[in-house]
User: Fold this.
Amino acid sequence: MKGKDLKPHIGIFGRRNLGKSSLINLLSGQDVAIVSEQAGTTTDPVKKSVEIFGIGPAILVDTAGIDDHGDLGAKRVERTKQVLPTLDAALVVMAHNSFDTEEIELIEQLNNFSVPYVILHQKSDLEELQTETLKKIREVTEAPVIETNTIDLAMRNKIIEALKPVIPTTAFVKPLLLEGLIKPKDVVLLVTPIDLAAPEGRMILPQVMALRDVLDHDAICVTVKETELEDFLKTGIRPALVITDSQAFGLVSQIVPKDIPLTGFSIVFARFKGDFANFMKGTVKLSHLNDGDKILILESCTHQVTCDDIGRVKLPHWIREFSKKNVEFDVVSGNAPLPQDLSQYALVLQCGGCMVTRKQIINRLKMATDKGVAVTNYGMAIAYLHGIFDRVTAPFAHINE
Assistant:
């Protein structure tokens, strides 16, 4: 659901015809959502990019009613549930003192994905929140509960003030990509192959982010292709860290002296955005595969598949060659839902995730780890298959996560 929108995502949930779309218009100060007296106006989740005073740029996610019914309604509710892992915070909307199974199940799901939330008793101008209703809510959650309506414009600030302390700081403050790996004045060498998969006329996002992060650390950045790597090392300049594209691990690890720290863009991103600890544990599953095992490959963005595609072509080939086993592969691309039965997989293999958020990756992988399924990412898997896993993860050993 998040895709390329890296701003905080705030989901709006509740039963049909409770004014969720009106609430979005109130928060954004614009008519960005269709408002109708007819129940079920909002069908699929819809994202609205807005600027909320006091919060900043954000994405409001308008969802279908959690009480929708019938075959089509059940599909709408399922689509609503699919956005939960992508959210940084949520507003749970209720009205008329109705707090029952639908709201309780929604709160359980939000808690499962560690999504903080505020409960809004909507339409308070028509009916105030009763003590008995609040008591029922408190049996389930200690989340903030406020009375609101979309008639009084002053309610906007009331909702925002309740929401601000709920949104995790990590949704706004991004950690430095190379935090703990380099220090000011270090020379950092980025090895960036230019092959068929490289975008025309530009660098890929992980390379750009790494370059910027080196500068933000007041360090010195040098960028070369793998074909010029030996020429640079002959200058006598000793880099404090070498970061390379994982597909060049084999060549680069042979050229860079063993006493110079080496890692990959994908492994840096595994710590920055992924479940690094579980990646470290799960990667060794590659040595314990059996005939008929299935591996799920997660591509967090959609892209044009080439004959050299890393996820769909190279990695399956390397894994079969390494394991000497007849392993099957399934691919889930972009925002498509994961298979319902993840226990059928021996391993889940996540891409670097450069185009999505840490929250989305962590929650998607949680669905696998909760089932006891091993997880890893492209860079770690490639390093393991090439026999240099210990070397390229060594720079992170001293960092207390």
Q: What stands out?
A: The chain has 14 helices and 14 strands. The chain has a mean pLDDT of 86. The chain has three domains: 9-171, 187-268, 276-385. The longest strand covers residues 46-52.
